[in-house]
Prior knowledge:
Blueprint: E1 5-8, H1 12-23, E2 28-32, H2 36-41, E3 47-48, H3 50-58, H4 63-68, E4 70-72, E5 74-79, E6 82-87, H5 88-92, E7 97-99, H6 102-116, E8 120-122, E9 124-130, E10 138-143, E11 146-151, E12 154-157, H7 164-167, E13 175-190, E14 199-203, E15 209-215, E16 218-226, H8 236-247, E17 260-274, E18 277-278, E19 281-283, E20 289-290, H9 298-319, H10 323-326, H11 328-350, H12 358-373, H13 375-386
Parallel strand pairs: 1-2, 1-12, 2-8, 5-14, 12-19
Antiparallel strand pairs: 3-7, 4-7, 5-6, 9-10, 10-11, 13-16, 13-17, 14-15, 15-16, 17-20, 18-19
Helix pairs in contact: 1-6, 1-9, 9-11, 12-13
Amino acid sequence: MRTTVGIIGAGPAGLLLARLLRGAGIDTVVLEARDRAYVEQRQRAGILEQGTVDALRAAGAGARMDREGLRHDGIELRFDRRRHRVDFPALTGGRSVMVYAQTEVCKDLIALQLAEGGPLLFGAEALAVEDADTGRPRVRFRHRGREDVLECDYVAGCDGFRGVSRTAVPAGVGQVFERTYPFAWLGILADVPPSHHELVYARHDRGFALLSMRTPSVSRLYLQVPEGTKPEEWSDADIWRELERRFETDDDWTLRRGPVTRKSVTSMRSHVHEPMRYGRLFLAGDAAHIVPPTGAKGLNLAVGDVVTLARALAHEKETGSAALLDAYSATCLRRVWQAERFSHDMTGLLHRAPDATPFEDRLQLARLERLTTSRAAETDLAEAYTGFPLD
Length: 391
């Protein structure tokens, strides 16, 4: 099998890249280790930056998002039993975010790829990327019980942190920067309408809490818990009681309870691999970088990567110049490090470290006071949250 761009991974990054390259007249084959049902059901991100929304619309994948997605024009910060709303459009010249689950983005892109795009092979496990440093890279994969080879001009590694793309970069090539955090998120999905119309980020002496949503009838909520926590260690009743404590305010706001349909624990870490390219292998999304989820940047960074890569490949096709491809890693990393900075700052602002001192607690509150009383500080948060430019 041969194609121009072999794409490993049918998450949002790989699927959007295939869609963008189709528009540029560039052939692709997408290999996905899991089956279609798994890809369309795995719970991941749910906040789309303005640039991600614009990119999906431009790719012809925004119709259902615009019908069913929930535009959000701000977030609420809670601390010391007080509430403060950050107004995105007023601070950013009209930018906002969209609540639309990654599962739904994948469903939309899969339907388009199967109807209009090149081959999308589910159950096709990539085994290795070979000869990435030559002009004829190859992807060895297993599909329907037999091994095959996909010959490409380029390989896009969109298969996440544990995929074969990242491990295809030889040891000693580039540098890894990372940090792990001594806490995690216990997340639940609940069949209950959200208790607030926008996301609520709460700093509390007992730890961080986040009120989010998937739809007008499904809530997504998170609690900061110690690293290593198992979901089954928390009963539904204990989760609701703790959420109520951490979201408490001095007004009459109340938290709606409902049946918990899913529990999970998310580790908190930061990871960046530099460069994001090895020969003709280009890393995108979690294969190249991971951010803690506090800033809602993971999916959006992946979209930024593939938009950049698609533009570079289209430029090479149209002009014969590899200048944009050669600049791919540096171009992406500028956005990546700003997102890492923002996600780290948000994490430190809202989470309580296990060994936090009273001095550090007061510093957190002072930072929140500054954020909620300074338009300049508030603007910095709003600009970062709604997304850094993809250009």
